[in-house]
Amino acid sequence: MFGPEGPSLRELAVQALSSVEHGYDLLAPKFDHTPFRTPDAVLESVAKALAGTGPYQDGLDLCCGTGAGTETLAGLCRRSVTGVDFSAGMLEVARRRIRPAGGPGVAWVRGDARALPFTAAFDLVVSFGAFGHFLPGELPVLFRQVHAALRPGGRFAFPVLAPPRPTRPAYWALLGFDAVMRVRNALWRPPFVMYYRAFRLGDVLGGLRRAGFAVETAPQPEFGRRDDGSPRARLVTARRLSPPPAA
């Protein structure tokens, strides 16, 4: 699961007993050598799907980590891309590894996705693999923040993988992981919020609509279909309606 350049079990244990922010500060130097980094195939599939929906001037990578999604965003935006994350360690790695030569300007901002310091600043917001760090009750705030950061007509896009069936070992592995995290957070402070099964597509789509988005989903054909014919991965695209919804 982890190569020789990845974190040791001891390092992962220390991270898991830290806060989310400090845990990712610790993991940052080796993050790109873990399975937690979004695979290139997912990034490429999203870029391909969004390429025909632009053009975009300014983009935001929400919870950017070490910047893999920010690089993808730079291929879609003409003027600027911004990566925002609350881990200073992850942002430091992103600054070192992404040094643009030509193309859009790149900026890095340390901030909380639940309190974004932007208003009508972007045409496109993307996010990859970060939603497990938000409790279901926090999603309405998150979606309102993204809505406010987008210009009217701007898009918020992110991939969603289909959950495994109960007949698959992965289903029980994720169920067990979430159970361990709940026990950990009941017994240890500060909490480390990371739940794989809390981000439910139906609830998410409804939350986006209530936040003032027109929402579409499309299969990502590169990842095929499950036995029942449903796609293994979808791209959610939420377009900001104007004016914003009443508070």
Automatic annotation (TrEMBL):
Entry keyword annotation includes Transmembrane helix: no
Matching entries from CDD domains are given as: AdoMet_MTases
Single GO term (MF): methyltransferase activity
Stretches for region Disordered? 220-247
Q: Name one Pfam family in it.
A: Methyltransf_25
**What region holds the Methyltransferase domain?**
60-154
The keyword Transferase is assigned to this record: yes
Q: Which Gene3D superfamilies match?
A: Vaccinia Virus protein VP39
- List the InterPro entries: Methyltransf_25, SAM-dependent_MTases_sf
Which PANTHER family does the record associate with it? METHYLTRANSFERASE, UBIQUINONE BIOSYNTHESIS O-METHYLTRANSFERASE, MITOCHONDRIAL
Q: What is this protein called?
A: Class I SAM-dependent methyltransferase
